[in-house]
Specification:
single chain, mainly beta, 7-stranded mixed sheet, 5-stranded mixed sheet, 2 helices, 16 strands, 36% strand
Amino acid sequence: MEKRRIIATLVAILAMGSASAEPGGNGASVGKGGFLLNVNTFEQCPGGEFLDSNRHQIAVQNGAAGNGADKTFKINKIFLKPGEDFWVQDGNACDDGAYFYLPITADNCSNCGIAEGEPLEPTFTQYEVRARVLGQPGGSVTVTSCVEEAADDTIVVDDNTDTETFCSVGEGNIWVQTRTVGSGKEQNKWENVSTQLLTVCVDTDGDMACDDRLGLFDPDGEGYWWNWDAQGRPHVQLVFYPVQSGI
């Protein structure tokens, strides 16, 4: 019975997700070349690895996220890979992390980096992403983008001889949102989260301020992931859309 209930819940969520991402003046639409991804929070995650399922859904667990920079703690981490198309290879982040492929390159962020000691405002050339939080009122989500150095000192030059991991820091570089009570356009509002989800803004000198920005899949990084901290039962919808679509 419990297994059937979980399956029914997943089917209902997916149906709601596909319908609610249609164009309608709410600030996002899937459109041609776009991709809708649902990230759903569970108290008790459904079983199975969801391997090679190509579903548009990833499951995360309520309150289970750990230290974002600790790559060995994989629960509620969504590992990101470059690919020819959007593809959820493993949709269960409740065990050993989920795996999500995106058809972008490091050139997606055309002006990542720093100028005069300050990180530049990123401009995107291939894909952008918008997000909204549905689900039970009061549910919240904090999503932090992280990166592992490709080799020692490729991101930060220091006395540490090991490769290091870094997560975004600083205002406007981490996506934080709460599902508030609302109706109509208020609850259907989308926001552009491309800066927070498609770049990593790292602290290079230990002062907890952003000093440099890398776009996803910059060769200075060997691995990229999102640390997905969900509290309550937020249902997050992400819509990735081509920049040239004009959406």
